[in-house]
Amino acid sequence: SDASAALAVDADWMFVADDENQVLRLYSRHDSGLHQAGFDVTASLALTDIDGGVPREVDIEGATRIGNRIFWIGSHGNQATGSHNARPNRRRVFATDLDGAGILASLIYVGRYDHLLEDMIAWDNAGGHGLGEGFLGLAAASAPNVSPEIPSGLNIEGLSIAPDGSTALVAFRAPRLPAGSRDLALVVPVLDFDALVTGAAPGSQAAG
């Protein structure tokens, strides 16, 4: 099992993502065993990084929910081993709507956004956080040949919705800050998160 993110349907059932494929699986929250259903969203994500005719993984690492809409986010990181090449399939945020309930719960694909990392880098480079231009070092952290496994690399690991119900909090395993000690975790707020996957908000509004 490579379970990497989960969202509760109710007290008894949950959807679980895997960081090695794009099948979102329905599991009991109480009983061990195989999944009851699986929803493969690979065909909807326009994945361009192909190996042997098969799309490489999105590397789903986080999930959160607004109402019946569930958001899933890839790690956005480079290849972890070897040359540390960029893996564009991982630069996906996508949404599914929850339909039905309990063991009959299903997911309906809504849409995706492929430019969140670009938006964050532009926001950081412009000093949109008020800490100075390029303070977070996101451009360098995500550059080709930089490992996502080191404290100065880039790897998204979590996702949650803020109390305002619309701002997403994107949690990073790397980079850690500040550059001198690398001992603090980074969380970046993303405005109008729901609007990103439906095309209602331009990418320039993604980070704030």
Provide a descriptive summary of the structure in words.
It is built from three helices and 13 strands. With 208 residues, it is mainly beta. β2 (13-18) and β3 (23-28) form a beta hairpin. The longest helix is centred in the middle third of the chain and has 10 residues, at 116-125. Mean pLDDT is 94; it is low at 203-208.
Per-chain topology:
Elements: E1 3-8, E2 13-18, E3 23-28, E4 37-40, E5 50-51, E6 54-55, E7 60-66, E8 69-74, E9 93-99, E10 106-113, H1 116-125, H2 138-141, E11 155-161, E12 168-177, E13 184-190, H3 193-198
Antiparallel strand pairs: 1-2, 2-3, 3-4, 5-6, 7-8, 8-9, 9-10, 11-12, 12-13
Q: How far from one another are the termini?
A: 35 Å
The main pleated sheet reads as: 4 strands, antiparallel
Lateral strand order in the biggest sheet? 1-2-3-4
User: What percent of residues adopt helix (DSSP H or I)?
Assistant: under 10%
pLDDT < 50 runs, ≥5 residues: 203-208
Mean pLDDT: 94
Number of strands: 13
How many helical stretches?
A: 3
Overall form: globular
